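Box 4.2: Ligand-aware structure prediction
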Amino acid sequence: MLGLMQDWPLVCHKILDHAATYHGGREVVSRSIEGPLHRTNYAEVRVRALKLAKRLEMDGVKLGDRVATMAWNTWRHLESWYGILGLGAVYHTLNPRLFPEQIAWIMNDAEDSLLFVDLTFVKLIEAIAPKVPSLRRVIILTDDAHMPETSLPGAVSYETYLAEADDDFAWAEFDERTAAGMCYTSGTTGDPKGVVYSHRSNVLHAMTAVQPDMLNLSSHDRLMPVVPLFHANGWSTAFSCPMAGASMIMPGAGMDGESIYQMLTRERVTITAAVPTVWLMLLQRMEKEGGDLPDLERVVIGGAACPRAITRAFQDVYGVKVMHAWGMTEMSPLGTVCSIKPEYDDLEGDAKLDLLSKQGHPPFTVEMKVTDDENRELPWDGKTFGKLKVRGPAVSASYYKGRGADQFDAEGWFDTGDVAHMDAHGYMQITDRSKDVIKSGGEWISSIEIENLAVGHADVAEAAVIGVAHPKWSERPLLVVVVKEGRTPLKSDILGFLDGKIAKWWMPDDVVFVAEIPHTATGKIQKMSLREQLKDYVLPDG
Amino acid sequence: MLGLMQDWPLVCHKILDHAATYHGGREVVSRSIEGPLHRTNYAEVRVRALKLAKRLEMDGVKLGDRVATMAWNTWRHLESWYGILGLGAVYHTLNPRLFPEQIAWIMNDAEDSLLFVDLTFVKLIEAIAPKVPSLRRVIILTDDAHMPETSLPGAVSYETYLAEADDDFAWAEFDERTAAGMCYTSGTTGDPKGVVYSHRSNVLHAMTAVQPDMLNLSSHDRLMPVVPLFHANGWSTAFSCPMAGASMIMPGAGMDGESIYQMLTRERVTITAAVPTVWLMLLQRMEKEGGDLPDLERVVIGGAACPRAITRAFQDVYGVKVMHAWGMTEMSPLGTVCSIKPEYDDLEGDAKLDLLSKQGHPPFTVEMKVTDDENRELPWDGKTFGKLKVRGPAVSASYYKGRGADQFDAEGWFDTGDVAHMDAHGYMQITDRSKDVIKSGGEWISSIEIENLAVGHADVAEAAVIGVAHPKWSERPLLVVVVKEGRTPLKSDILGFLDGKIAKWWMPDDVVFVAEIPHTATGKIQKMSLREQLKDYVLPDG
Ligand SMILES: Nc1ncnc2c1ncn2[C@@H]1O[C@H](COP(=O)(O)OP(=O)(O)OP(=O)(O)O)[C@@H](O)[C@H]1O
Ligand SMILES: Nc1ncnc2c1ncn2[C@@H]1O[C@H](COP(=O)(O)OP(=O)(O)OP(=O)(O)O)[C@@H](O)[C@H]1O
Ligand SMILES: [Mg+2]
Ligand SMILES: [Mg+2]
């Protein structure tokens, strides 16, 4: 017996319809690529997205076609997403920080036919376009006044392109499982893999993201996604904000501490989201120049483990609540948020910081388990770590073209590649990546935990722990450190600082000072390269 | 091109799995039918629901079978729902306040095979059971110690029934569109019609209900559903609370002001929900006996228009936020909640009360429009009223057995039978039921607005406005009033009180004092009966 309820497909453009109807005047404020601030709202964004969908259709774009974007967070990029997906085509975000060869490889893999690109990246794309035969047209996200000279195929300014269509258009109709978007993983552990979101997964994901114990997004919020739309599905902000009727404050290309501070304060941002590196830059800027954050209520920090020093500064110095979050491109991306459940309401001081340094607990629709190598479930005791596996309607069932099939098992569990433990109340903490785990004498050591402690030392700018071959223990941890400008700590200072904070046998065997630690295009430490770089290093007793 | 995300069906029992895993210790506190308070939690509720599902399967219950419940809100009723739906059978809630013949008719219409019933209703069901041939077994929601003598077929105590199965059981697997529950409408405008919820609709509905601008449910909430589970799908609390990890405080049979006050305060309830009548009883009790509501943050009021006097008392006297909500059995049931959007943040005093007396705005997934008789959309100007039509994944596509087909149109819109206007920010206000609309000289008069004003008069206990035939205007409003004990207002007092508050031509032509106004089984004014009762009344100038 089936229910007798309506077949109302979960499609992304209905989110924008809702925003335009019930929160039509709510602002979308952007720092434009051309310079000035630009103000619009959901009602206008929807009209322009409809025009764009019509224009794309006139251009021969069809259901399932991949249309790429390489752009900062602005209203035009937002409109592009909805224009593309509202036609049943697939927005495919490109990360401009990848190597040009990687970008070309990804575009060819996805067979992108059109590309929306910011002025910033025109030169970059001019070098890539000739290597992407499927690319037949490039729309530059600007107006005619700012159009550059360019060799790009079919180049046209976004505003002119839009003006060639009216808004007398109805969103296309299709099954909710239709592909809506595409994003490749960051490539921290190897080559990026293509993830294909459906309309359904994006909608369900946004419906969980806005919930009170997750981002708690309401129509009173003004959210600034500093995380770019090209990182892990833009952390869903393009869907969760209009769904909740929250204003969006778009930082454009201004990703430095000063620009972010200006946008946060001038635009009275209440909630913002980015990777730890961004917040480090903001905090450094504020430490130097002063200032406060009177409107900002909460900051979502994810993409990499959030060092305690950041949490402490936001909380104690600026009165901002830190929400540590964990996600993956493959999870749309939100997996967990570290909001405080009643069981932990009474925590204070260090105990509270301990909790907030966990990655948090999942919303309804995300299932998790932690297993050993034989796929046996491990206890939720807050210390036994193993492979973290997940399931849910916004979790990948496979990668594009069937790559990485071994990460998916028969019961539908996806192996995240993260190593984690869970506590009795379902708080998850990542201790490592599977590929970065250090195995000393058969036991695992958490590199992330040591790194997070090490960056708490006043002289340390960045820290990474990698495993180095050891004759007796098979592997031992090595601490690699970038020191802050003008500081000259001794190895013993740093190790002494760790003493008592970690188990004796976790203590790194040595410290190596380097000028720079290699990063991925999303700003994460690239341990593969670091291990490669230090492959000739030999431990003191090795 | 389809997305490559997991096929993770939206089924109701996954909500309980989530609650048991991530909010397992969160309390479910009930005033038991036997008397004492009973405390359990989501982890235990889940184990018992699994046992129940297994026990039902042993009893031959199959996918799609209708299993009825006639019970107050207790942990056992909650377990019954999940035990039934977790097997793929259909919980069918019966309203014990209907006439026995209506109950028998409904049970036969649904072909209920089993029934879970509270001790309170054993006698009632004994009279009905012989008329329901499909009913083969009755489980009485108590333990052996409290089992009554009964002639009911296969009668067994719930605890004994449960004990006959272990919890080694996996939830059944089926499509998310499978029927999960069944509820008949209240029968205000005619015979009750069967609504069949799917797993998908219940899950999506709960995902919207918990959102910040809706009920804003979090793991810190302790929600008391005073609204019975047999009213309009229990207002979704059986799903939204475990989804959010909110505690449930179940009032059992204690629906009087004193019992409710005791539960609210002793169990530190933060949010509660019921029809206006319940809140009138509570407020009367508090006015008489004193007391305050220190933990209660918000009260959800729906099912009928909420008189301003109630809103004012909660807000000004007890510091509790009123959330006026509108819903229908056919909408799972939530349609709108009157939370305050930024546009209205600055309202105060009467202007704020005006806003809060609206039924509110819908969440994402509820589409609304207001049309005239020719299905032309009317402007959203806050005054032009017409037929309210809705669409969404948790809105009925049809009634059971195809009844009432004229309420559904080809584009999927469901005619709610309510008459309403919308304002520019999407706030909806109900002015009438289509069947109760008063048409004076071709123009519509809102009976609900006049009623809500009239009950603001100090001597008025209850008020209803109906249309009465008029030679010149075709229909004119008549105000029917029940006065408070010991009061003897004059007609002119009451009309004078309305003067200046409504348009001159809305002023009722007369006032009739009656001892009682007829109500439906859900406590709503039954205007059909009232018109019948006053059919011989003639207007002063009629
Ligand atoms: N709060 C966090 N704490 C620790 N690690 C995090 C956190 N959030 C995300 N991560 C890490 O980021 C990963 C997801 O990142 P993303 O999807 O951008 O690609 P990637 O895993 O870095 O790259 P690739 O999968 O191509 O190797 C997670 O699997 C996890 O390792
Ligand atoms: N906040 C509210 N203000 C005014 N009316 C409301 C409110 N909430 C619900 N209602 C009324 O209740 C109706 C839904 O009630 P329900 O589904 O219990 O059955 P019913 O409409 O009373 O009965 P039937 O459909 O069988 O005639 C709505 O259509 C509306 O008329
Ligand atoms: Mg990865
Ligand atoms: Mg009705």
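In the box above, the bound molecule is magnesium ion. Chain B touches chain A through 72 residues (CB under 8 Å).
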